[in-house]
Specification:
Elements lengths: L2 H29 L7 H8 L6 H36 L11 H13 L12 H29 L5 H24 L3 H11 L8 H20 L1 H8 L2 H6 L4 H23 L5 H13 L4 H24 L9 H18 L1 H4 L4
Helix pairs in contact: 1-3, 1-13, 3-8, 3-11, 3-12, 3-13, 4-5, 4-6, 4-11, 5-6, 5-11, 8-11, 12-13, 12-14, 13-14
Amino acid sequence: MTKDNNNILKSWGIVLVGLVSILCLFLLDLSLGSVKISVEELLKIISGNASKKSWEYIFFNFRLPKAITAILTGAGISVAGLQMQTLFKNPLAGPSVLGISHGASLGVAVFVLSSTAIFGVTANFQETLGSWGLVLFAIVGSFLVLLGVLLASSKVSDTVTVLIVGLMFGFITGAVVNILQYFSDPELIQNFLVWTFGSLSGVAWSQLRVMGPIIMLMLVMSLFYSKQMNALLLGENYATGVGVNVSRTRLKLILTTSIIAGTITAFTGPIAFIGVAVPHLARLLFRTSNHKVLIPATMMCGMVIMLVCDIVSQVPGAQTTLPLNSVTALFGAPVILAIIIKSKKMKGAF
């Protein structure tokens, strides 16, 4: 058996393990919480033969939308990070590092805190626009920051400088958010602060009907960009030589990343580190930089990691949940440190 055949079999084996892991973690996520529901009881609830009506209510109104949100969030934010790493040719690029999530947070802050008077101007976007307005504001915020980082990166070639630019945009948006909070009512500030901790449990079916189609559409579009992303890895001159419109491809990646990051951030809060760490995990497992393989692999790994983080955040048996950002940081921060330490070895992949 040739080496290529061995690699193919290994990849299919990883995919099988990943799919089984997603299914098992999905069921575990549905089972655990303040009220523990056995897998056997879950099957009864799904078939319409629940032993307790309260368990059925908890399952359909809280556990199921939360678990679906975890899958969508894990796949979406991970692919957004992969696209940024390819676009900027930077292994540390990601929605949180480049300030994209901060831009989305600014959009959400304007949306949520808008009913407070600032310089005599008031508006209540929540009442007039609803969930679609929340998504729109978050997407616009993330798009503007990402566009600013991209324009700055065109002036400098140093990858570290690009990261610093992203951090500066993050500080600027953070300062604007602080100003909005200063003029806001205490109740609105508390709601916004709780949102910044990150949580999957606040996404109801009405919000999932908005979030789900948007994320799935953007993920499908990302799959169609795999050829262009492969070309970008080899340089803009090569991409242009093989017929890729670099400017148009950049715009497509910016739009899809902004929409993914903005939509997810709007409903779950800013999710840190996952977008940076998961693409590297996918590369490590599948030993490839081919985006035709890497994009679906990143989706799968993102689903697994986000389900694990959500399970850990629940602290099974407890009445409260840990902030999701704290759990994702425990996973993602060590990965980023490892990337920095081994950066010389990873230059060949970018």
